[in-house]
Design a protein that fits this description.
The complex is a heterodimer of chains A (223) and B (790).
Chain A lengths: L7 H7 L9 H17 L3 E11 L3 E4 L5 E3 L1 H6 L5 E8 L2 H13 L1 H29 L4 E2 L14 H8 L2 H5 L2 E2 L5 E2 L3 E9 L20 H4 L7
Antiparallel strand pairs in A: 1-2, 1-4, 2-3, 4-8, 5-8, 6-7
Helix pairs in contact in A: 1-5, 2-5, 4-5
Chain B lengths: L2 H8 L2 E2 L5 H6 L11 H4 L1 H14 L3 E3 L17 H19 L4 E6 L14 H18 L3 E7 L2 H14 L4 E5 L13 H10 L4 E5 L4 H14 L4 E4 L16 H14 L3 E2 L7 H11 L14 E3 L4 E3 L6 E5 L5 H8 L3 H14 L3 E4 L8 H15 L4 E4 L3 H10 L5 E6 L2 H13 L3 E5 L10 H18 L6 E4 L11 H16 L2 E5 L10 H14 L4 E4 L4 H13 L7 H7 L17 H7 L2 H14 L2 H21 L5 H24 L9 E6 L7 H12 L3 E4 L6 H10 L4 E5 L6 H13 L5 E5 L5 H6 L4 E2 L3 H12 L1
Parallel strand pairs in B: 1-8, 2-3, 3-4, 4-5, 5-6, 6-7, 7-8, 11-12, 11-18, 12-13, 13-14, 14-15, 15-16, 16-17, 17-18, 19-20, 19-21, 21-22, 22-23
Antiparallel strand pairs in B: 9-10
Classes of the chains: A alpha+beta (223), B alpha/beta (790).
Chain lengths: 223, 790
């Protein structure tokens, strides 16, 4: 897929400029960095739909032995009968670019890092658009990822194995549960023929809520 | 069994089709480990094997694709038992069929990415593959198949593990995207070069796409590979929602005919294919006469993602070499790998096609440094490397961990050198530079040097190094000492090229040693040498007139067709992004505020004429940095601008350091600090930001990098007697590593303080895990360093 222009305001927010910038130097650097990032990135995503069932431990992905453990996932998927499991990555080229820039031009490295954060969100949004052109349901939840609430990060290994993420889009996970390429996302969306409760979206379910710099300054990360 | 012989006897060989697709059809749950069925569903597996044998396969793959210690770690089963069972099932199926079919030990990617993007070390990957190979060999496999590989580096670890632990033929197959590259950016040419060099029996492509989409890659493989080509496509493309594949067995077999016409030697199937696909394919192409192709190739080397063909002059950058460079030596002693990486990136940016890497210094562990340098340089640039050392042990270590096909610098006509170096070049499939000198030194006459070249070429060919992989260095002597020798060198270059058809290489800069205006002499000598047939000038590419001479030569010789490269290099003036004031108005402070590196360096040079270096640092640089730091804290400027200012200060520091080194003074350092991103964590941008700022306040940073072992932090803190250690972690899961590292520092009674930082840390948590300080950002780390060190 080809990335749309990267959302610079989003990237600037990650850098702490919540109101954008008109600083010429910053704008010139953003131009330079966006070009490099677009050249290095090779965005890909992958998804599949699975029926789910609710167990005492959490939510079981049917046809597999995977359980999304804990209360958070179960609460998020309340009233759902299926999930769309998805993963996305900007590819290894971005990691190579970031390593390169961290040696030669640290200021650009920081900007590319933020732009890449904005870009992977856009890839996920694009994936969602495609998913809901093809997969129909009455209602659906927002994207939920391992590490949110009490859903353990180590489920990532099983989810990526289930999706054959390495073989199909080159996405793997380390023993420490960190994904590589580093600019990657794993998430699921609940599907329901009834209605789902969307109100839980926001800071309360986020494991960063006590130390989030956006919250401290009275803002919100946008998720 | 040997693939070549088998192809001669039987003609085109047929491999089997998908295993996973068959298992799923028989009820395997998605996400389960299919290899465990080797132990629990023997009959089912034998039945699948039998169906492929009946369909006409010459070689069938055991169900061992993911049977490695990483993927089996949750299963409670050992690699040995799963692989042994897999091979036995396969062999029993063959025996029961009564047919003369071979069993392949099938090995896929480990499932974790290797360094530098991932954290799995090359050596660890080797051990994981070794375990699989030892088990499969013992159980009686006939051939080793590495398939669905996407990382050339991982494939190299796999091939070495196979070569060194069994004597079975090796077949390698990688998975390419429609852009002709794997996920890691590896092109098919690089796969061919690596596999040929390492003595693999067949090379090719499988999975990801159907036969139609794979055609361009299959063509490349068949046109460029000297060894037989294997092709195992998917059954077309899968529907993203249903997973159904797009083509049927008949269509697949029609494509197989096309693939056979292109010259492939082995054809099979991958995802979505069934015994029916193989039956129809075998019916149409099995046993067709296989004719090995004669492939002519000029010297070609590669990294994991970039292939460089020496079909025209290619620049070898000479700057990664400590000879005569005080700062470089200092960097080696301090383990300052970033200094070397900076040199690498600068040369590539200036136009180097290949980089020479020499880290030889009497006081350091050259082997360890060479391994580190090769791995790190390959992490930030994609140009192939020339491994440069006089010590065979260092050469071998570098050849092992190098990703791709490198060049070795060098062997010479001495018996000792030929005996020690050529076997390494052969074993690791490298290209090699041959110096025309021997035990009597450098002969004065061109003819004598040509004779040594001939000897080296002959010895290479005897050991199996093809002529195309040899570049001869006729040696540049200093014009000030041996003026008449210049012409002998040029004569020798021409003669070697014309007589033997090998590539030629010269270290150009030596010509001007001891003379004024060296650049002029280097430039003219380079041009003369190019006209005499020099292919690989070793130069300083950062000197514009040198790189320019090569570009101009290529244009004038019509090598650079339509002047494309030349215009790309010089055609458009790079627009300056920010309007710059007149240089007379720029002060050091203004330059730092506005990110003007070159200007700041120039001003520093001028200041050094009559100002004490420490005064420049303390009275000008640090107050200017403090000012931007305060603006950052107030939210008036943002992180990139803060870093940009720090980068400018860095260029001033570099000037001061070079000045001090020239005057043999002590270097300026306020003290050493060890920094590390903790074990398990590969996201180290935060740590690197901290490093930049600390360095610009005059601290020497011992940067241990990312994913750092606990003990390595302790060792470095002890070795460098630091007062402060900084640790960074990005994820909640790696905070545990941070805690363990701090604990080990305390257990060892080291007298240093520990500062921690990272996205998920809080001051409370920092205190809980025993850190002395929590820093919310890079600026605060500097404040803490001031407090602890001064």
């Amino acid at each position: 897929m080809i990335l749309q222009p990267i959302d610079r305001n989003e990237a600037l927010r990650y850098l702490g400029c919540k109101d954008g910038t008109d600083n010429e130097q910053m704008l010139a650097m953003l131009d330079f960095c966006e070009k490099q990032l677009l050249k290095a990135a090779s965005p890909k995503y992958l998804y599949a739909v699975y029926p789910i069932s609710f167990t005492d431990d959490g939510v079981r992905i049917s046809d597999s032995n995977i359980i999304l453990k804990g209360n958070s996932a179960a609460a998020h998927l309340k009233n759902c009968d299926r999930i769309v499991l998805m993963c996305a990555t900007l590819g290894q080229g971005v990691d190579v670019l970031l390593r390169h820039l961290q040696v030669s031009d640290m200021a650009s490295a920081v900007i590319v890092d933020s732009l890449a954060g904005a870009a992977i969100e856009q890839v996920c949004n694009r994936a969602e658009t495609e998913i809901f052109e093809k997969v129909h349901s009455n209602s659906r939840t927002w994207r939920y990822s391992p590490g949110y609430g009490d859903l353990p990060l180590d489920i990532q290994f099983d989810l990526l194995t289930l999706l054959q993420a390495q073989k199909r889009i080159g996405l793997t996970v380390m023993n420490s549960n960190m994904m590589v390429p580093t600019k990657s996302v794993t998430a699921f969306i609940g599907l329901s023929e009834g209605e789902v409760d969307q109100s839980t979206r926001g800071c309360e379910s986020c494991n960063m809520k006590d130390r989030c710099k956006f919250r401290k300054s009275g803002g919100h990360c946008g998720n | 069994m040997e693939i070549k012989t088998l192809l001669e006897q039987r003609g085109l060989l047929i491999f089997d089709g998908a295993m996973g697709t068959q298992l799923q059809a028989k009820g395997l749950k998605t996400g389960e480990t299919p290899e465990l069925l080797n132990l629990t569903a023997k009959e089912l597996l034998k039945e699948i094997h039998r169906s492929y044998i009946d369909a006409g396969a010459d070689i069938i793959s055991a169900n061992t694709f993911g049977a490695n210690s990483y993927k089996l770690s949750h299963s409670g089963k050992s690699v040995d038992e799963v692989i042994t069972a897999g091979i036995i099932n396969c062999k029993e199926a063959i025996k029961e069929s009564g047919k003369d079919v071979f069993c392949a030990l099938d090995i896929g990617p480990i499932g974790q990415l290797l360094e530098p993007t991932g954290s799995l070390k090359f050596e660890e990957a080797y051990d994981i593959f070794k375990e699989e190979i030892v088990a499969g060999y013992k159980a009686g496999a006939d051939v080793v198949l590495f398939e669905t590989m996407t990382d050339l580096y991982e494939l190299k670890a796999a091939i070495l593990a196979a070569k060194e632990n069994c004597d079975l033929p090796i077949i390698c197959s990688m998975t390419f995207e429609e852009n002709g590259r794997t996920f890691t950016g590896c092109p098919a040419e690089a796969e061919i070069l690596l596999c040929e060099g390492l003595g693999v029996s067949a090379v090719g492509v499988n999975c990801s796409l159907g036969p139609k989409e794979l055609m361009p890659i299959i063509k490349t493989l068949c046109e460029k590979s000297k060894i037989p080509v294997i092709v195992m496509p998917n059954a077309g493309l899968p529907d993203p929602a249903t997973g159904e594949y797009s083509i049927d067995a008949e269509e697949f077999s029609d494509y197989a005919v096309e693939i056979a016409d292109l010259g492939a030697g082995i054809i099979g199937g991958c995802c979505g294919t069934t015994p029916e696909f193989i039956r129809r394919t075998a019916k149409k192409v099995k046993g067709r006469k296989y004719e090995p192709k004669k492939i002519e190739r000029v010297c070609t080397i590669c990294s994991g993602t970039n292939v460089v063909e020496v079909s025209q002059p290619r620049i070898i950058g000479e700057r990664i070499n400590p000879t005569g460079k005080k700062l470089f030596k200092q960097a080696l002693i301090n383990d300052d790998i970033d200094y070397i990486l900076g040199q690498a990136i600068e040369q590539v940016g200036a136009g180097a096609d290949i980089l020479d890497v020499n880290v030889g210094l009497p006081d350091i562990d050259e082997k360890a440094m060479m391994i580190k340098a090769v791995k790190s340089i390959q992490g930030v640039t994609n140009v192939p490397l020339q491994i440069d050392s006089t010590i065979p042990e260092v050469l071998e270590a570098a050849l092992r961990v190098y990703n791709g096909k490198p060049m070795v610098n060098s062997v010479n006509g001495e018996e000792e050198s030929l005996k020690n170096v050529l076997p390494l070049v052969k074993k690791y499939g490298a290209a090699v530079v041959g110096l025309t000198l021997d035990k009597d030194g450098i002969p004065p006459k061109a003819e004598q040097r040509v004779a040594i070249a001939e000897k080296i070429i002959k010895r290479c060919e005897e050991i199996g190094i093809p002529k195309e992989d040899i570049a001869i260095d006729c040696l540049t002597l200093t014009a000030s000492a041996e003026q008449l020798a210049v012409n002998e060198t040029l004569k020798a270059v021409r003669a070697v090229k014309e007589r033997f058809g090998v590539r030629t290489v010269l270290g150009v800069s030596n010509i001007s040693f001891g003379l004024p205006n060296r650049e002029l002499l280097n430039h003219i000598f380079l041009t003369m040498a190019l006209e005499n047939g020099l292919d690989l000038p070793i130069i300083n590419p950062n000197v514009a007139s040198m790189t320019g001479a090569v570009r101009a030569f290529k244009l004038l010789k019509a090598i650079d067709v339509n002047s494309v490269e030349y215009i790309a290099a010089y055609g458009s003036d790079t627009p300056t992004t920010v309007a710059k004031p007149k240089s007379s108005e720029v002060t050091l402070e203004y330059a730092i505020d506005n990110g003007l590196k070159a200007e700041a360096a120039k001003i520093t040079e001028q200041l050094l004429i009559d100002t004490d270096p420490m005064a420049i640092i303390n009275e000008r640089l640090i107050p200017a940095l403090d000012k931007t730091g305060t603006l950052f804290e107030q939210g008036k400027i943002f992180l990139p601008q803060l870093i940009l200012s720090a980068g400018v200060a860095q260029s001033c520091f570099d000037v001061i350091k070079a000045h001090l080194a020239k005057n043999n003074s002590e270097t300026v350092s306020k003290g050493k600090i060890v920094l590390a991103t903790v074990k398990g964590d590969v996201h180290d941008i935060g740590k690197n930001i901290v490093k930049v700022l600390l360095e610009n306040y005059g601290y020497t940073v011992i940067d241990l990098g990312k994913d750092v072992e606990y003990q390595a932090v302790v060792d470095a803190a002890r070795k460098h007697e630091v007062k402060l250690v900084g640790l960074s972690a990005l994820m909640t899961t790696t905070l545990k590593s941070m805690e363990e590292t701090i604990k080990l520092i305390h257990d060892n009674g080291l007298p240093c303080k520990v500062v921690v930082g990272g996205a998920v840390l809080t001051p409370e948590y920092a205190e809980k895990i025993g850190a002395d300080f929590y820093a919310k950002d890079a600026k605060e780390t500097v404040d803490i360093a001031k407090k602890v060190i001064g």
